[in-house]
Amino acid sequence: MKIVIIGAVAAGLTAAYSIRKNIPGADITILEKGTDISYGACAFPYYIEGLIEDEHKLIAKDKEEVLGDGLDLRTLSEAVDVDFSAKTVKVRSLSNSNEYDLSYDKLVIATGAKSNRLDVFQGMKGVFPLNTLKDANAIKEYVEHHTPKNAIILGGGNKGLELLESLTLMGVDTQVIEYLPSIMNIYDQEFSDLIIKELKGEGHRINTSEEVRSADVNEKGYVAKVMTDKAEYPADMVIETIGLKPNTDFLLNKGLKMERGAIIIDLYGRTSIEDVYAGGDCTLIYNHVEKRNTYLPLGTNANKIGKLIGLAMAGKEPPFKGVQASAMMRTFEFEMAMTGVTDRVAASLGFDYDSVMVRTRNKSGYYPGGSEHFIKLTYLKEEGKLIGAQIFGREGSALRIQGLVTAVYAGLTVDDLAYMDFGYIPPLNSVWDSINVAAGKAVAKRIRERNRK
Ligand SMILES: Cc1cc2nc3c(=O)[nH]c(=O)nc-3n(C[C@H](O)[C@H](O)[C@H](O)COP(=O)(O)OP(=O)(O)OC[C@H]3O[C@@H](n4cnc5c(N)ncnc54)[C@H](O)[C@@H]3O)c2cc1C
Prior knowledge:
The protein is α/β, with parallel strands linked by helices. It folds into three domains: about 1-40 and about 60-115 and about 245-315, FAD/NAD(P)-binding domain; about 115-240, FAD/NAD(P)-binding domain, CATH 3.50.50.60; about 335-450, 3-Layer(bba) Sandwich (FAD/NAD(P)-binding domain), CATH 3.50.50.60. It is about 25% helix and about 30% strand. Helix 1 runs parallel beside helix 7 (about 300-315). The longest helix has 19 residues, at about 435-450. Bound molecules: flavin-adenine dinucleotide (FAD). The site of flavin-adenine dinucleotide (FAD) has 33 residues, from helix 1, helix 2, strand 4 and helix 7.
C-alpha cells in the first residue's frame, strides 16, 4: 500500500510511525517543505530562554533516523496540488524547483498552520512569529546578538504569556498588547481577571483593549516604535502571537470538507474524501462536549490523531469519544488549566448550565508554603453532569485538571465528585481535596435551587 504524508512534525510523523507499526510493509513517503522535522514546538519558550540548551533535545527523530527506519522522507519538498480523483500529489522540490507527481493509495494531510501576521510590521526587521523551529532560533539569535531593550508581544494567549516569562528572564523589558478586553480568552472572564491582577501585581505590563495601529523603524530597518490607539511604545523587538491560519490553501475548492480553512475530520482522522486522512493544526477535531468539530491546535491533539490515523488505516478503532479542549498554561509561578466548556461557550451553545467557583489552597492550611487556587466547575443544571472546569493558581494547580478531565470524559456529576476518594498528604492538598470542595458547593447550590422551586 502506497501512503503519502504531507508534513513531518507532530501529526505527520506520528501518523507515519503509527502506519509503519500497524501496516507492516506499507510504502510510506513523507513530504516536508522545510528542513526541520519532528520537533517539539511546545518547548520553544524554554529553548529560547536557554532552559533547554541544545536544539537537538527538541527533536524526537532526526532525518537520518527516519530514513534508517525505512520511511522515504523528502525534505524541501512542497505539496503544491492534490488531485483527489487521480490520487496524485504534485510535489515541488524547493532545492531545484522541479515538479513531479506522486501517486498514493492513502493520503495523510498534516500541514499544520501558520501564524497570523499584522500588515503594519511587513518588511520590518526584529519582528517575529513563533510557530516553527526556525522562528524559535531567529528569536533566540536576535535576543542574544541584538540585545533588545524593549519587546512587545502581541496577543495574550498561551504563547504570548509563556514568552513574556522567557523574554523577561532574558533581561528584555517586555509587555503584552492584546486587542480584546481580556487575555487567555479560551477561559471565562474571571480567569483573565485573575491572571492579569497577579501579573500586574508583579510589575508586568499587560495592556488589554489596545489595538496596534502603526510602527516605525530605525535607520537600519529594525522596528523601533509601536503606536496603538492608546499610546506609543519604544520597541526593539515584536513577537506576533495572534492566532493561526491552517496551511490548506493548496487544497481549497477540491471538494474536501473544510470550515474556516481547517479540514473537518472524524474521530480517527478520516476526511470527507475516501482514503484521505488529516490531523493536527490544519484540522477541526471532534469535541465530544460541544458535540461539534472545533479548532484546537494543540500538540496533544496532533499526536493523538496521528496515532489513530495509523490504527484506523489498519482497520482498528480503539475507543475514543473525541477531545474536550483540555489545555494548560504556565507563566512565571502562575498556572492555568481547563477542560470542557467555559460558561461563555456553554451559553453560546444554549446549554442549560450552572457553575460554581471556589477559592481553596494547594496544600493543607497548616503546611508552610501553600497558596490559593481557584476552581470553577460548569455543569448541566438538570442532572449535575460536569461539562467543564477551569483552574488558576500556583505550583501544582494546573495538574489538578487531570482529575476533572477524567470526570468530564466519563460524564460524572458534581454529586459523584463531592465525596470522591482523592488521595491526601498535607504538602500536596487538603483532607478535602479542592475538587471535593468545588463539587460540594455545586451540590449545595443544586439543592438550594431545587428547594426554591
Ligand atoms: C510556542 C508554542 C508553544 C506550544 N505549546 C503547546 C503546549 O504547551 N501544549 C500543546 O498541546 N500544544 C502546544 N503547542 C502547539 C503544538 O506545538 C502544535 O499543535 C503542533 O506542533 C501541531 O503539529 P502539526 O503536525 O499539526 O503541525 P506543524 O507542527 O505546524 O507541522 C506541519 C508541517 O507541515 C509542513 N507543511 C506545511 N505545508 C506543507 C506542504 N504544502 N508541503 C509539505 N510540507 C508542508 C510544515 O513545513 C510543517 O513542518 C505550542 C506551539 C507553539 C508554537
